[in-house]
Amino acid sequence: MKKLILTAVIMLASVASYAQHAVGSFTLQPKIGMNIADLTKADDSEVRIGLAAGAEFEYQATDIVSVSFGALYSMQGCKGDLYGADGTIKLDYINVPILANVYVAKGFAVKLGLQPGFKVNSEVTLKKSGTSGSADLDGVKSVDLSIPVGVSYEYNNFVLDGRYNFGVTKWSDNSDSKHSVFQITLGYKFDL
Predict the structure, then answer these.
(1) pTM of the model
(2) Is 20 helix (H, G, I), strand (E, B) or coil?
(3) Mind listing the pLDDT tens digit for each residue in 60-114?
(4) 137 CB contacts (<8 Å, ≥6 apart)?
(5) For the chain, how many structural domains are there in total?
(6) 127/131 Cα distance (integer angstroms)
(7) pLDDT tens digits, 168-177
(8) HEC string for 117-162
(9) N or C: which end of the chain has fewer CB within 10 A?
(10) CATH code for the domain in which residue 114 is found
């Protein structure tokens, strides 16, 4: 047991210089990337590729832990055989990720948090027999909640970030499906 505690203390002591920014500092990170989104329990669905763009603030609380929060425009939903036709469910949100970041190596962070999302668009586009049309979706909830889990790597203030957002709430009153979104972004950190 003493060896285990000693090993843990040595590992934590060696991690102390892994953060890129000074303790107590704030950074702003504009970012842009893509979502690979789907809905769970949606039969015959395919992923919808969409935009993810916005900015995050980060506060470096200790040498190895920081807290970040931001606002990201996020195109979500799915494609597939919907209502008997080829179609796309377009569900777009302003997501507000609130994350704890633990730096486990120089520039490399593991992330976990909560992410409320606020609906800005919900429509379905259908294509059948050479015709197409779109309509607003009924019953889509105005607030969504997910749990983002991911990693990021920072080099010379450029940040490559990969996350998976586990949907917690149903996206609609008329469905048991939840969001399933893999997100990859590239950002640049500015010291404030």
Answers:
(1) 0.84
(2) coil
(3) 999 999 999 999 999 999 988 776 668 888 999 999 999 999 999 999 999 999 9
(4) 89, 91, 122, 123, 124, 172
(5) 1
(6) 6
(7) 999 988 888 8
(8) EEEEEEEEEEEECCEEEEEECCCECCEEEEEEEEEEEEECCEEEEE
(9) N
(10) 2.40.160.20
